[in-house]
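no rush on this but wanted to send it before i forget. theres a chain ive been looking at and ive put its sequence and its fold in token form underneath. i want to understand how the tokens follow from the sequence so walk me through it. thanks a lot i owe you, the record is right below:
>
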Amino acid sequence: MHDTLDNLIRIEKEIQLKVKQSNLIIKEPKIIAVSKNFMMPNILPLITHGHIDFGENRVQEAISKWSDLKDKTNEVKLHMIGKLQTNKVKYVIPLFDYIHTLDNLRLAEKISEEQLKINKNLKIFIQVNIGRENQKSGILIEELDTFYDHCTNNLSLNIIGLMCLPPNDNNPTKYFSKLFDLTKKLKIKELSMGMSNDYLDAVETNSTYLRIGSKIFGNRG
């Protein structure tokens, strides 16, 4: 068995056990295999196994890696999980299925504009600056209601959930719980939270999409 597939199966079992131990009445979250810096020889064993969700941070890298495969199949779902510049949106819309990093009004307007051109609606997460950190992008909590309303009602974006990158203070659960409460308030269901170092904490706080890279593919060069 290929190492990446072995790692994925181990993570799946960990998540299943965590759900069972916690008596959580939730569906198991989807694992987004973050394949940044890794090429198809590392990725194909997962696809052959039946895994369909993959995440990329860089637009140009994603185009070179995924364009041929995405032309051949609609089964694989590609998630944009990196910072997205407005000048890259026209390349993202045709290739990707999800955007996890909608973090400002100008970007929302550009996504709406480009989606109309090719009649495609991606599934989108609003990135929330859950820890109010100056070095991180995202919508502030007090601005979230207005931003969500504008995106859905005025721009016709398909906002399915919220995403966050919690502060590195060894207590991600309190931030994950806060994001979960915000989704309840907005009456949206999806949560993109949890990475290689904290995905089990995210499972306990009802995450529905986990963004896992190094635990599957190993350390990047």
Residues 3-217 form a domain with the TIM Barrel fold (CATH 3.20.20.10).
